[in-house]
Every structure is written in C-alpha cells, then in structure tokens.
Specification:
With 401 residues, the protein is of the alpha/beta class. The protein has 11 helices and 14 strands. An 8-stranded mixed beta sheet has the order 2-9-8-7-6-3-4-5, sandwiched between helices. Strands 10-11-14-13 form a 4-stranded antiparallel beta sheet. It binds pyridoxal-5'-phosphate.
C-alpha cells in the first residue's frame, strides 16, 4: 500500500499514541499500576442487566429501531438536572445536553468542530493521552501549559495567550487529572473563564472522574463560571458505571450542540437507543449517588494506601502528587532518569512492576522524567508491595546517574 494515499492526519508510519501504552508482563507476581480502568468487582452488573430488560419491556421491538441523533429526552432531562445539582451549572435543559459515545467521542467531536489544520490550541503538560490521540487527527499547533498541584498554570496560560492570540481552544481535565492526579483550584477555574472571555477561545472541561472524590470538598465546575457560553462541560458513565456503556454526556450552549450533532450524524448517525434507555431505567430505579458513595468508600482505601506508600518508599528527590479522588498519582523523578527506559530495562523485567511513562502524556513526547500510577485497580496490599519495589528501583536508578 502506498502510504501517500493516506491523508496526512493518519501518518501510517507513526503508531497510535494509545498503542503499547500498557507493557505486556506475564509474571505471577506482576503488579500493574498501568490501567485507567474502574474496578470490575464494583460494577452494578445485576442492576444494569435489569435496566436493559426494563428498556426492552417498555418499548418492545421498537427498542431496536433507528432512533435519533440526540437520544431519549428523559435521559437528557435527568442529566440536565444532575448538571445543575452536582456541577452547579445554571439553567440547563435537555437541549443543552448531548449524549456521546463515551467521553472520548465528546473530545473528538469538539476538536473536529473547532480545529482546522494548524489551528492553535492549549493542552496541559501533561494531559490525557486519548485526547491527544484525537487532537492529532486535526493537526493543530499545540501550546503546552504546565500542570501545577492546583491545576494548570494560569499565569503561563495568559502569557501564552498574549503571545498567541490566535489560540481558539483549551482542553483541560479539571478534576483528579489524568494523568496528574491534581484538581484545579476555585480561583483558577474563575481565571480560566475570565481569560476565555478576554482572549476569545472555547474551553473543553473534561471531567470523567469528578464524582469520584474521596476526601476534601467538591468545587463548582469551570462551566459554573461561564458567562458567554464558551465552556463545554464533558462527563462520562465509564468511570462511575461501566466503560462498555460507551456513553458520555456534555453540557453546552445550544448553538455549539447543533454543530456537534452535525458531526455526530456524520460519524455514527445516532445514540444507541438500547443503551441510552437502559441507562435511563438504571437511573430511574437505582440511586447513582448511593452507588458512587460505595465506589468512593472502596477507592478511598486504595488512594490512602498509595499516598502512604509514596511517603514510605519513594526516595528523596522523587515527588508524588497527592490526589483527593480519581484514579491516579503522578510521580516525578530526577531529570536524568528516563522513565521509558527504566520501565523496559528495569521495572518490568527485574521488579515485575509496570507504570505508564510520562512521554505518552505530552503533546511533543519530550518529558521523560515522570510516570502515571493507577491505584484503583489494585488492593492496598498490592499497592504497598508494588510501591516498595518501585522505591527500590528508583533508589538504585538514582545511584546509577
Ligand atoms: C480524562 C479522560 N477523558 C476521557 C476519557 C474517555 O473515557 P470514555 O470514553 O470511556 O468515557 C478518559 C478515559 O480514561 C479520561 O481519563
């Protein structure tokens, strides 16, 4: 096949950003800090099975027919209410809520709606690798803004905007960052909206982990502060229910949503009715909040085990973010250590542990001294054991420099 036949966005000679993210490791005592998956044992499988049956019983054969690009209004109404109650977004109606094929499709459709080739956008450094994999397809010019312990550096954002007033799009993970583990402060949320108004850009606030807060107080969404319809709030059922539902939802101004529907119709015609109806029945007959409370109880124990283990085992000069929820901790090591090399040469073959090395989370793949650690997929004992091995490994790597 002649590679020149492909559009430039595909770059056939370049592997997907998501390929090989999780190294294969088949040792019996392997401990994997890699996945961003929710704990399977906590899936509400029985209740969801019943919800699918209820959906089929309610609509009979019609359940399986073509439906519409916007999906059931009852579900969008429920989500509009949730956006007002939990995210503190005002005046949300079903028309402001769009259902997407996972949060991932929301990211992709927003990028497609905004970005012409070469258009300027800002991403956090580091940022969610799946978002980069989508943005890459629209061939933007990336400007990176560093992530701090209280969210993206808004001074640096403003300096970048002054220098590049053509920037039209900011992508941010505001709560329990993937991969950073940090949460944006209230002040920075306000500042982001202020800057969006001043410098005329759109903000995509991607928050699949928002409900998974284990300690501390919930903050209003960035969209809460939105005065000009510039912020798109994006959530997902993947982390709080199940990833296979492939259902995300976003809240935005109607004019934005109309453009996104054009793109969704072109991509996949419509929301899968059976799944949307099943989620609607699930929400009608079960308390999502009770389920989330249960998840948070279990995940808190795992997060605490990770925070304790970081303190106990990480050698001097190595820092770890201290999450209050979500799935991840981010570890930064000495600049001289390349965490990709360390993973393949030492961590997997010798210590039988795996993490996701930092370079995957940067637009230009040029930061090599960090790693993302997941704590929700492991028991506290596994976390302790794995972090002990990581501590040994890093102490040894430090001596080799
Ligand atoms: C920050 C962030 N956004 C979006 C997604 C996409 O999730 P989904 O498409 O399953 O909703 C993920 C998944 O890991 C994520 O971490």
């Amino acid at each position: 096949m002649d590679n020149k036949l492909f559009a430039t966005r595909v770059q056939p000679e370049v592997p997907s950003r998501l390929a090989g993210l999780f190294p294969v490791m088949n040792y019996e005592d392997a401990i994997k800090f890699t996945a961003g998956a929710p704990a399977e044992s906590l899936f509400p499988a029985k209740a969801m099975q019943q919800a699918y049956l209820d959906a089929m019983a309610a609509e009979g054969n019609h359940t399986f027919q073509y439906h519409t690009v916007d999906g059931p209004v009852e579900l969008r109404e429920r989500l509009a209410q949730r956006a007002m109650d939990k995210m503190q977004i005002e005046n949300v109606t079903a028309e402001n809520v769009m259902l997407t094929a996972g949060g991932q499709q929301g990211i992709d459709l927003v990028a497609k709606a905004l970005l012409n080739k070469g258009d300027a956008m800002v991403v956090e450094a580091p940022t969610y690798v799946g978002a980069l994999s989508s943005f890459d397809m629209y061939e933007p010019t990336y400007y990176e803004v560093e992530l701090e312990n209280d969210g993206l550096n808004t001074d640096q954002l403003e300096a970048t905007l002054k220098q590049h007033p053509e920037i039209k799009f900011l992508y941010t993970v505001s709560d329990f960052h993937n991969p950073g583990g940090v949460t944006m402060s209230l002040e920075k949320r306000q500042k982001v909206v202020e800057l969006a108004n001043k410098y005329n850009f759109i903000v995509l606030e991607d928050t699949p982990y928002r409900d998974l807060r284990y300690t501390g107080k919930s903050l209003p969404s960035i969209k809460h502060f939105d005065t000009e319809g510039r912020v798109i709030f994006l959530s997902s059922f993947s982390k709080v229910l199940m990833p296979t539902l492939r259902t995300g939802w976003l809240v935005a101004d109607k004019t934005i949503i109309q453009q996104l529907y054009k793109l969704k119709e072109a991509a996949d015609l419509e929301v899968p009715n059976i799944t949307a109806q099943a989620i609607n029945h699930f929400l009608a007959n079960n308390s999502l909040d009770d389920h989330i409370t249960n998840l948070n109880k279990e995940y808190l124990v795992r997060m605490q085990a990770m925070i304790d283990a970081c303190q106990k085992y990480l050698p001097e000069g190595v820092s770890a973010t201290k999450p209050e929820g979500g799935f991840f901790t981010w570890v930064t090591v000495n600049d001289a250590i390349n965490t990709t090399d360390l993973l393949y040469n030492e961590a997997t073959p010798k210590q039988h542990i795996a993490y996701v090395p930092s370079k995957n989370f940067y637009a230009y793949k040029d930061h090599t001294n960090g790693m993302r650690l997941n704590f929700t997929g492991l028991t506290p004992a596994e976390i302790d054991d794995g972090m002990k091995r990581l501590g040994t490994l890093l102490a040894h790597a430090g001596q080799l420099i």
